[in-house]
């Protein structure tokens, strides 16, 4: 047996001056970015020197190769550093052990090579250089793993900040963001954008958004929709940067909100998703919420404020954080499914349902009624933009039916629904019945005396005509419901907020 104490081994794996250096080129191929695999290198060594090769850590745990019986005393000397390498032969076997530094501090493994013929100079050179290559690959793996963990932790932190904003806890969101992104949330208002591609492209798209906004925006991989990237930004120039990202990435869509108070990030997110639906019908594949006429903009501001304040008055008895939590959850729950809202907020779907049921009881509302959902959604979005001055200036509240009788709103509603008449099918009648049935195709089919698939086809056919998504609950659907209320096609829901108390 022979050994070398603490000899420094060169890590340069290039070999020159040898007649047979083809193995060196093959080893270098294993160091290329596309070929860095510890197991493949160990297997290559075994095939090249015609031996059984294994790599194990300081505890004897196999890392790669085919484990072979070793002299544990020699292995311990190698791991401890007393020997840098060792050779042994007997029983028709020739064994070579080489110390391999592991990326873990003060740790080393053992590369064991066993074959039936003696080791010549060529085999010894190949083993020495392979051990050096393995050290490089192990260090690279450790660095890459550390980088992945850091990236994951940063991504989780971005999501945590977004979830705090969604429940109006802006102070906590600022504290969390201050450590990594100083000044990012030092703002009172911001816009929210949702960029849509495919789940396979989302990571690259998120990286492109971070680069385009120069890390001056909060970029989050949406926890609810695998194809979405959410961007919260105070910068007015961000929309141009994100539109440029969309131009450079095919089949990418962009929806943006109007500028909102940072505390109303949830409302801005709903606006961005609504605009994203419109973007699917636009040639440039982008849309911003303010670019479209929305029914609340056509109502008397003072009357709308007074009605909203009265409808949501039962929630004023709650503690501020509880009220904010319920409003944010309900706002998202009306925009999306309970499962999706739960993922965005980082809570369980049962929690989302429980919070929404509490709001239902407080408001005396029934969220299974699409007209009720549309009315409450209108109130929540209006509440997000209310200021103390507007609340003080509001007059006596009027019923929702009176709020929807303004000439501008009626004209908008009639023009919107008139688009359905251009289709040879009775899209208007089907859509009305479908809304009355709470968005249930089977019940609507019974009302109309047709097949449920016909109802689904008609509702789906109305989407491009109205430039609004209907089968997915959200702002688009509620605008169409309000249009039916404004034209008198549907009766306003009977909401009596003062009847029930928590």
TrEMBL record:
InterPro entries, per the entry? CdaR-like_regulators, PucR_C-HTH_dom, PucR_C-HTH_sf
**Record Pfam families:** HTH_30
Q: Which organism is it from?
A: Streptomyces phaeoluteigriseus
Top-level taxon of the source organism = Bacteria
Where do the PucR C-terminal helix-turn-helix domain residues begin and end?
Answer: 339-381, 427-471
Under which name does UniProt file this protein?
Helix-turn-helix domain-containing protein
């Amino acid at each position: 047996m022979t050994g070398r104490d603490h000899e420094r081994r060169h890590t340069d794996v290039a070999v020159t001056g040898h007649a047979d250096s083809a193995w060196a080129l093959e080893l270098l191929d294993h160091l290329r970015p596309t070929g860095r695999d510890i197991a493949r290198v160990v297997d290559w060594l075994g095939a090249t020197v015609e031996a059984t090769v294994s790599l194990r850590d300081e505890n004897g745990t196999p890392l790669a190769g085919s484990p072979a019986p070793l002299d544990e005393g020699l292995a311990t000397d190698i791991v401890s550093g007393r020997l840098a390498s060792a050779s042994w032969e007997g029983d028709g076997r020739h064994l070579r052990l080489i110390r391999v530094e592991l990326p873990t501090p003060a740790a080393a493994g053992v590369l064991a090579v066993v074959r039936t013929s003696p080791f010549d100079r060529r085999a010894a050179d190949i083993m020495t250089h392979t051990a050096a290559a393995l050290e490089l690959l192990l260090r690279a793996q450790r660095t890459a793993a550390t980088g992945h963990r850091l990236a994951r932790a940063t991504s989780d932190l971005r999501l945590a900040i977004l979830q705090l904003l969604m429940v109006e806890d802006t102070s906590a969101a600022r504290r969390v963001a201050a450590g990594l992104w100083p000044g990012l949330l030092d703002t009172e208002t911001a816009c929210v954008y949702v960029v849509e591609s495919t789940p396979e492209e989302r990571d690259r798209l998120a990286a492109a958004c971070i680069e385009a906004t120069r890390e001056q925006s909060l970029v989050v991989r949406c926890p609810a929709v695998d194809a979405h990237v959410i961007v919260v930004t105070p910068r007015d120039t961000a929309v141009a940067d994100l539109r440029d990202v969309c131009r450079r990435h095919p089949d990418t869509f962009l929806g943006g909100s109007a500028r909102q108070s940072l505390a109303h990030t949830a409302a801005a997110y709903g606006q961005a998703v609504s605009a994203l639906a419109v973007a699917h019908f636009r040639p440039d594949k982008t849309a911003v919420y303010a670019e479209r006429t929305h029914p609340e903009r056509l109502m008397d501001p003072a009357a709308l404020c007074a009605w909203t304040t009265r409808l949501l008055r039962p929630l004023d008895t709650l503690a501020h954080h509880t009220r904010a939590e319920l409003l944010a959850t309900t706002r998202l729950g009306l925009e999306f499914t309970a499962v999706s809202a739960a993922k965005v907020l980082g809570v369980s779907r049962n929690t989302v349902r429980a919070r929404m049921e509490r709001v239902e009881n407080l408001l005396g509302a029934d969220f299974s009624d699409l007209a009720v959902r549309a009315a409450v959604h209108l109130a929540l979005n209006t509440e997000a933009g209310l200021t103390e001055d507007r609340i003080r200036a509001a007059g006596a509240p009027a019923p929702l039916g009176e709020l929807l009788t303004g000439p501008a709103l009626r004209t908008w509603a009639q023009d919107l629904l008139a688009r359905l008449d251009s289709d040879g099918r009775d899209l208007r009648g089907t859509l009305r019945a479908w809304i009355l049935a709470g968005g249930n195709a089977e019940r609507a089919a019974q009302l109309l005396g047709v097949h449920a698939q016909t109802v689904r086809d008609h509702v789906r056919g109305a989407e491009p005509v109205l430039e609004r998504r209907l089968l997915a609950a959200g702002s688009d659907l509620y605008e169409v419901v309000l249009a039916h209320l404004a034209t008198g096609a549907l009766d306003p829901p009977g909401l009596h907020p003062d009847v029930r108390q928590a």
